[in-house]
Write a structure and sequence with these properties.
Largest sheet: 8 strands, antiparallel
Number of helices: 9
Bound molecules: FE2/S2 (inorganic) cluster, fe (ii) ion
Number of strands: 19
Distance between the termini: 17 Å
Strand content: 15-25%
Structural class: alpha+beta
Order of helices and strands: HHEEEEEEEEEEEEHHEEEEEEHHHHHE
Shape: globular
Length: 431
């Protein structure tokens, strides 16, 4: 439960807000690479942390992300001409490069140096893994680019997916920190009939994906425990297995918005990111990864085809609150817990149904909500510190390059924190 003031502090992210400033200290995904497919392609609109922006790819392939509004008389640069190494406003022809410099001002006398005094707001970008990332904070505090395991892989080993969601980013993020819901929201009714299932992998080590599902059905009151780490924190959903062992699903939360969901070793080190578009909408980003080989074209098409919520290039899905996420009451009776297809869409339905900014004053949080409580505390502490001029956690690229999530069956009674960890992981953030 939060107070109204805490909820505001947690959820508001526009320029000048404490949480907005915290998030502006990190690299965030803003567009997919395919939205700017080639040099001098059409500019596109982008919105992040409440700021209206326009992105373009210049003649050399560099990505520019600039203020939507031209600094002359505020016309939108979305209508701009993406010309030889810069975007030109169609109103009076002022032209800007990817660094925000005004490189041409034909409406002023040739001898004028006015153009040297005008800049447009611009943010640096990196194009990596099918995703265009940006940093919106002060230039002198710009951190090194993200070094997640997934981003160390070649681009063709990654698949990026993005869906626009009609709710505040905190709600979406909390869905990933709430392991207990997978025994309900994402349940296929057929899984309830797995009582006799045994493929011999309910033993110490790694269960098969089917056995993992079986265990989640068998034990639906996962014990949730949190461990602070130097990069954020991680938490476990620990369940009893039918053979009396402990099953761990360990998710890592890398401050402030990056999460690696529990996974078996042969599932790639993907990343989920719930990133605010503004206070009432967010982007649900997922970067899927394969370590062994590139994704094939079929796999890419397949992923896109059965993606949680098939989207257009702007991330708008075919399912949403306007069509009740294409829920089928028949399917709900016979097939799945929700009658909604797609895990991500099921998440979207419940998180968006809480209203754009959920009323956290009237919640009743229990032991299964420990990770959510912890996450709020860390974010609120960072926002309050920011109000006092203290900068948030600065990631060590070396540490970031080793962070991983984990899933394993361990002897009952063993300490979960030993598993999937690396040296130095246990020294956490102050909470
Ligand atoms: S408003 Fe853009 S050049 Fe005048
Ligand atoms: Fe979920």
């Amino acid at each position: 439960m939060l107070t109204h003031e805490e909820n505001e502090l947690l959820c508001r992210v526009g320029p000048g807000t404490p949480m907005g400033e915290v998030l502006r200290r990190y690299w965030l995904p803003v567009l997919t690479t395919e939205e700017l497919p080639e040099p001098d392609c059409p500019p596109v609109r982008a919105k992040l942390l409440g700021e209206e922006l326009v992105a373009f790819r210049d003649s050399d392939g560099n990505v520019g992300l600039v203020d939507n509004n031209c600094p002359h008389r505020r016309a939108s640069l979305f209508f701009g001409r993406n010309e030889e190494s810069g975007i030109r406003c169609v109103y009076h022809g002022w032209k800007f490069n990817v660094n925000g410099d005004c490189v041409d001002m034909p409406s002023e006398p040739a001898e004028s140096n006015f153009k040297d005094k005008v800049k447009i707001k611009s943010y640096p970008c990196v194009d990596k893994g099918g995703t265009i990332w940006t940093y919106m904070g002060p230039a002198d505090l710009q951190p090194p680019f993200l070094n997640f395991l997934a981003l160390q892989l070649p681009d063709d080993h990654l698949i990026t997916n993005r869906v626009l969601s009609d709710c505040n980013f905190i709600q979406s993020m909390e869905g990933n920190l709430d392991t207990s819901h997978i025994s309900y929201l994402h349940r296929n009714l057929a899984d309830l009939k797995m009582d006799d299932f045994d493929d011999g992998t309910d033993v110490l080590g790694f269960p098969s994906p089917r056995m993992s599902t079986r265990i989640r059905g068998y034990s639906r009151d996962a014990k949730l425990m949190v461990q602070p780490t130097s990069y954020g924190w991680r938490y476990v959903g620990q369940r009893e297995t039918p053979n009396g062992h402990h099953h761990l699903r360990i998710t890592t939360a890398i401050f402030p918005v990056y999460q690696m969901i529990a996974r078996l070793p042969d599932q790639g080190p993907g990343i989920l990111m719930m990133v605010p578009r503004d206070d009432e909408t967010c982007w649900r980003w997922s970067v899927g990864a394969r370590t062994d080989r590139p994704f094939t074209e079929e796999e890419r098409a397949d992923r896109a085809g059965q993606s949680a919520n098939k989207t257009d290039i702007h991330g708008r899905g075919e399912k949403g609150k306007w069509n009740d996420y294409m829920m089928s009451r028949d399917d709900q009776k016979n097939l799945s817990f929700t009658g909604i297809k797609g895990i991500g869409t099921q998440d979207q339905a419940v998180t968006e149904s809480m209203q754009p900014i959920s009323d956290k004053m009237n919640e009743h949080l229990g032991t299964s909500d420990r990770a959510i409580i912890f996450n709020r505390r860390i974010l609120l502490n960072a926002a309050r510190a920011m109000m006092e001029g203290q900068e948030p956690l600065r990631h060590d690229p070396d540490v970031m390059g080793r962070i991983n999530s984990h899933e394993e069956i361990i002897p009952a009674g063993d300490d979960w924190r030993k598993y999937g960890a690396f040296a130095g992981e246990s020294e956490g953030l102050p909470v």
